[in-house]
Specification:
Length: 158
């Protein structure tokens, strides 16, 4: 008889992760039995990005082997340096995914507001081998840029 939160799997009702057992369901290979691995990082706290490339906040995960849809977005404001450019990019196993590189310049000169707020986002389908981290990294060209409202979603699709 099923209990609240159980899943019908291969003709048997089994508990979903965290329901009664406290552990995720895994197959003999250690993969999640129902085929999904989802991770979401949300941060409303201000995260400062400097000229050194690095992971934004805690936007990194090392999931089980598979193919994932990675979606990342955040609001940016420059703290200093007119013309400061933010570079925002998805990395897999320490390698930048070139087609995910996004740049934005939330500062201006002259008639433009010197410290504009902007939204920046990127996404990609990636395949990992189970030991590779998926991360969102960023840097500024000069001075600092603040990222707020960070969303970093990693959803297993295969």
């Amino acid at each position: 008889m099923p209990v609240k939160g159980s899943i019908l799997f291969q003709g048997q009702y089994i508990n979903a992760p965290g329901v009664n057992s406290g552990a995720p369901l895994v197959d003999n290979g250690g993969n999640l039995a129902f085929g999904l691995y989802n991770n979401e990082v949300n941060s409303s706290a201000a995260i400062t990005v400097t000229t050194t490339v690095g992971v934004i906040g805690s936007a990194t995960v090392t999931p089980v082997a598979g193919t994932y849809l990675v979606i990342a977005s955040g609001n940016i404001t420059a703290s200093s340096a007119a013309g400061n450019i933010l570079t925002f990019q998805i990395y897999v196993g320490g390698t930048a995914q070139a087609d995910t590189k996004r740049t934005a310049m939330p500062t201006g000169t002259g008639a433009l507001n010197a410290f504009q707020n902007m939204t920046i986002s990127t996404n990609k389908l990636v395949t990992v081998n189970g030991s590779q981290a998926i991360a969102l990294e960023a840097s500024s060209s000069a001075g600092t840029i603040t990222v707020t409202g960070l969303n970093f979603d990693v959803v297993r699709i295969a």
